[in-house]
Amino acid sequence: MKKRSVEKAFKRSVRRAIFALTYGLLAFILSLARYRFVVITIPGRIGHLAIELDWFLKQQVLGQYTAIRPIVLLPYSEAANPALLRVWGNYLTLISNPIAITVLKPLVRLESLRIDLHSVACTLDEAAQYQDVVKSWGDRPPLFKLPESLNEKGRKALEELGMPPGGWFVCIHARDGVYSPGDEHLHIYRNSDIANCLAAVDAIIARGGWCIRMGERGTASLPDRPGLINYPDTHLKSDWMDLYLASHARFFLGNTSGLCLIATISGVPCALANMAPYGACYGMGSKDISIPKRLKRLDGSDARLAEIFASDVSSFRFAEQYRQAGWVVEENTEEQIRELVLEMLDRLDGVFRETSAAEHLQQAFRRLLTPRHYTYGTTSRIGEAFLSQYAAELGMPEAPQTVTSIGTPNCEIETSNEMIITASTKGIGSQ
Q1: CB 53 within 8 A of CB 38
Q2: How many Å from the N-terminal Cα to the C-terminal Cα in the chain?
Q3: Beta-strand relationship, 294-297 and 289-292
Q4: What is the average pLDDT value for the chain, to the nearest integer?
Q5: Same-domain status, 58 and 155
Q6: CA nearest 193: which of 311, 329, 318?
């Protein structure tokens, strides 16, 4: 028995030595050839799959990582959107074969061969790095582009859905529990009711646009009206069509769901409502405008914006944190979302005018964020009607002069569902 144990131990040692030698040699060859494994933090979430690789590839163009040859190990079955992964395969070496991935995966553990993208968009209590590349990239055209074959396919699909040639459209999306029911209890505070977008839908249609309701199959449809397409209910719902719509919209009306980030990497501006948590209330794109949800205590009392941003609640990431700390997350109203959309439409039409008082409010709100907040350092903006409505919370005794647009219908920006959420840190009341 003792002899057999010695033999087994010897064989294990030999196997380990062969394994170490083989992988050591392979690691040396890959390092010499300047290959590096680029690791996406959560490839099963479309937002991470979109902006993490967009950040990396833009950094290469801007002069970082220029001496390396990037490799991504990822099977299509693990990608949130396989069509997106295929497009990224045009920009770097993509290995999706399961056998090849199994062989190469041990090498990913070596720090010398690994580039981890965790800090790009998956940070806690610190700013996401994606804002940095947005500022450095400036007004350059987007790096991400769909192949022309996919664009042609998308144009034909739009015609099939009833869109007239030459028409323009806006993607409308509200996060719900259909996409990822397995962890819905963690993120329910980020959800919102698509019905609160109806006034905005009507405003877009009145300005000559079409609205395409985005989302997964099974999400709630919007009431039928001319100029509206409930896309998830059609036979054209697909991963590639999601990409086409988000990257060709005039703008994307969304929230904290990652689907809007397809628009961001495509250079399409976003109007984002119901943003939460407060530390992540800004959009990622430089031309985005956004408005946060409102927070109230369980007894119904309000908290001032400065008080919220100075506390841990501004960075709560899980529903249970809000519940345990005694907070209610309140959705934006139909009118607030409509005002956000009218501002975006007027900005895109080149008729939006900003007052010095409104700019003062923008800067006052921006100063509330600190380096521990997710969107600290962003170049996007908060919706001006929302800021005007809560001017007193920003140290302004009265709302600033109304911002007006010229030459468009509904040109004056007016100043005008509650969900109790459920999960651990200190709230404002404990500070």
Answers
A1: yes
A2: 66
A3: unpaired
A4: 89
A5: no
A6: 329
Would you say 274 and 268 are in contact if contact means Cβ atoms under 8 Å apart? Answer: no
Candidates 325, 346, 356, 349; CA nearest to 422 is 325
- Total domain count, the chain: 2
**240, 282, 288, 296: which is closest to 267 by C-alpha?**
288
Q: Is 418 exposed, middle or buried (0-12, 13-18, 19+ CB in 10 A)?
A: exposed
| b/e per residue 180-210 (b: at least 16 CB within 10 A) | eeeeeebbbbbbbbbebbbbbbbbbbebebb
Separation of alpha carbons 209 and 219, rounded Å: 23
Residue range(s) defining the domain that contains residue 60: 2-137
Q: Which run of H or E residues covers position 130?
A: helix 130-137
Q: Which helix (H) or strand (E) holds 99?
A: helix 98-108
CA distance 208 to 210: 7
What is the pLDDT, as a whole number, of residue 314? 95
CA distance 323 to 369: 23
Residues 93 and 162 in one domain: no
Domain endpoint, select from 137, 156, 176: 137
| Cβ atoms 383, 289 nearer than 8 A | yes
Instruction: Find all residues with CB under 8 Å of 78, minimum gap 6, and list them.
Output: 43, 44
Q: Is 112 exposed, middle or buried (0-12, 13-18, 19+ CB in 10 A)?
A: exposed
User: Of 23 and 222, which is predicted with more confidence?
Assistant: 222
The three state secondary structure string of 244-312 is HHHHHCCEEEECCCCCHHHHHHCCCCEEEEEECCHHHCCCCCCCCEEEECEEEECCCCECCHHHHHCCH
Whether pTM exceeds 0.90: no
Percentage of the chain beyond pLDDT 90 is 77
Whole-number Cα distances in Å, 357 to 286, 343, 361, 397, 405? 21, 16, 6, 12, 16
130 and 176 in a common domain: no
Report the alpha-carbon distance of residue 295 to residue 331 in Å, rounded. 9
Amino acid at site 43: P
What residues are paired with 352 via a beta bridge? 405
SS3 3: helix
Residue with structure tokens 């769909």? 146
For position 15, what pLDDT does the model report? 64
